[in-house]
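Researcher: Sequence recovery benchmark, item below. Answer with residues only.
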């Protein structure tokens, strides 16, 4: 059978026996249809197989890939499930593709496939197992299409050449170890729906540069999530929904050179969370109640000059954080205020009195001709019908002025009198 180059299996076949294509050295292409429910060991042992279309969902145990030791270069999956371990350590594999039928990709499916350089994952996938692409050390580009809402644990761990990842908008969690040791990544856009950044999720991604902003959707940053990301520069901003910052979350991120801004909902900061962020110069802490601190949270910040806390909270912070302040200058601040018009064609919005610790904020809406002011909203909720609107700043605010069209009417009574209406 050494001369056979391509085999097309019928869609009625159910079993492929042990070493079925063993020593078919000329065999380069085969399909495995969805009807197959049993596959024996080493079916391609010592074969020349290079291209496979795989529609079955038969799985394999660790170290038992049917392609291990073959020169396989390309595989396409057309079934609903990519079996665990199916291509583990297939170092010659260069191309992987998936149909939109694929719903699940099993544990270690492509782990150690060092020939892979790019992967495109369809939006149909709803589940990823552990370490799916772990240690694919030459993988450089990953695109995960819209529709995917979850990733797998350790999914790209040790992909040391990975430079670019496009994540879909609806991802809610960056799982534990997901990008651990992906030190060629230079940036990552955290989607606006992410709520949890897992343990070691980006640990030792030392290629990251620029500033980092954790979006307001995130509520938890877990242990060592960004530890050893040492080449960030600029500022670090923790979003206003984060409640917990885990142990060592940003430890040894020595590249940040500007401000650390801690969002207003943080209630606890773990041990060594910002230890050795040695080039930060200023910390702005927004919670009205001082968060609980672990050990050595702000240790070894040799360039830190000021710690700034909200108006009226200086006494509480001094009492509860006194040991962390050391000889740094501590002062209070006013929260951030921004205003905008919902439609610049209808009118404009402005801050007409800047707030400080003793002065309230004042914002004013100015309608264009033919329009009228309706209300102020924030995050889609009405906060005031007053114009101007005067209020105390107890948190960050981004206010939107809303306007509507104004109509003039007139009516003439039987008496000859004309009445004018404006709505």
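Model:
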């Amino acid at each position: 059978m050494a001369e056979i180059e391509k085999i097309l299996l019928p869609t009625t076949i159910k079993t492929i026996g042990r070493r079925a294509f063993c020593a078919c050295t000329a065999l380069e292409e085969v399909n495995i249809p969805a009807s197959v429910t049993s596959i024996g060991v080493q079916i391609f042992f010592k074969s020349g197989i290079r291209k496979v279309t795989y529609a079955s969902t038969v799985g394999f145990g660790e170290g038992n890939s049917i392609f291990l030791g073959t020169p396989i270069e390309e595989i396409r999956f057309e079934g609903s499930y990519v079996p665990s371990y199916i291509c583990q350590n297939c170092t010659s594999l260069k191309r992987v593709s998936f149909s939109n039928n694929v719903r699940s990709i099993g544990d270690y499916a492509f782990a150690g496939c060092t020939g892979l350089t790019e992967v495109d994952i369809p939006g149909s996938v709803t589940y990823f197992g552990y370490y799916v692409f772990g240690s694919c050390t030459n993988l450089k580009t990953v695109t995960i299409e819209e529709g995917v809402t979850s990733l797998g644990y350790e999914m790209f761990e040790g992909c040391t050449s990975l430079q670019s990842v496009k994540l879909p908008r609806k991802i809610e969690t960056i799982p534990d170890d997901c990008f651990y040791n992906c030190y060629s990544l230079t940036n990552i856009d955290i989607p606006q729906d992410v709520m949890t950044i897992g343990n070691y999720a980006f640990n030792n991604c030392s290629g990251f540069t620029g500033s980092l902003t954790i979006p307001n959707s995130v509520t938890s940053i877990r242990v060592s999530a960004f530890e050893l990301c040492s080449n960030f520069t600029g500022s670090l901003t923790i979003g206003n929904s984060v409640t917990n910052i885990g142990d060592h979350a940003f430890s040894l991120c020595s590249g940040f050179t500007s401000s650390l801004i801690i969002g207003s909902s943080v209630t606890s900061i773990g041990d060594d969370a910002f230890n050795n962020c040695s080039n930060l110069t200023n910390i702005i802490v927004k919670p009205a109640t001082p968060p609980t601190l672990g050990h050595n949270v702000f240790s070894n910040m040799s360039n830190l000059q000021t710690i700034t806390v909200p108006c009226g909270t200086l006494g509480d912070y001094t009492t509860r954080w006194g040991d962390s302040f050391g000889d740094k200058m501590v002062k209070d601040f006013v929260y951030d205020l921004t205003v905008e018009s919902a439609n610049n064609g209808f009118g404009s919005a402005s801050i007409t009195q800047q707030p400080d610790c003793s002065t309230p904020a004042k914002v004013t809406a100015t309608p264009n001709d033919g329009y009228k002011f309706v209300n102020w909203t924030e995050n889609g909720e009405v906060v005031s019908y007053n114009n101007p609107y005067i209020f105390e700043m107890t948190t960050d605010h981004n206010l939107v002025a809303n306007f509507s069209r104004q109509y003039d009417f007139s009516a003439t009574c039987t008496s000859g009198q004309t009445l004018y209406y404006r709505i």
